[in-house]
Write a sequence for this structure.
């Protein structure tokens, strides 16, 4: 049937149907965008919390070693072996540089980028 034989009422209903479809699609897209934003925020918060926990665990282990042994650990491997430090090495790089037996080591924790 060609367009010129469609009644005004049918044209109006067709337009309403299209508007409802556009409205529904807009709501779905908006919900997806909101979900993605929330997921991203939760993910960032989780990574920040992991970094904080690793920093605290590393500092506790170093201080515990000093209080028990009277000197700071000689390496990160020593802390892992003797004080049970574990962390996700795919997500974090730990630069551990001892200064002296009685001087707190220089510790830098860097979050690795990319898709983990």
């Amino acid at each position: 049937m060609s367009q010129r034989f469609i009644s005004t009422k049918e044209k109006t209903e067709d337009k309403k149907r299209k508007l409802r479809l556009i409205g529904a699609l807009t709501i779905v897209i908006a919900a997806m965008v909101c979900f993605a934003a929330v997921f991203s925020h939760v993910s960032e918060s989780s990574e920040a919390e992991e970094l904080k926990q690793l920093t605290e665990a590393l500092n506790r282990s170093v201080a515990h070693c000093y209080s028990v042994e009277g000197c700071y650990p000689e390496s990160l491997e020593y802390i892992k072996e003797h004080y049970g430090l574990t962390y996700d090495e795919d997500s974090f790089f730990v630069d551990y540089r001892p200064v002296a037996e009685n001087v707190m080591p220089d510790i830098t924790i860097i979050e690795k980028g990319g898709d983990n």
Helices lie at 8-69, 76-83. The mean pLDDT is 87.
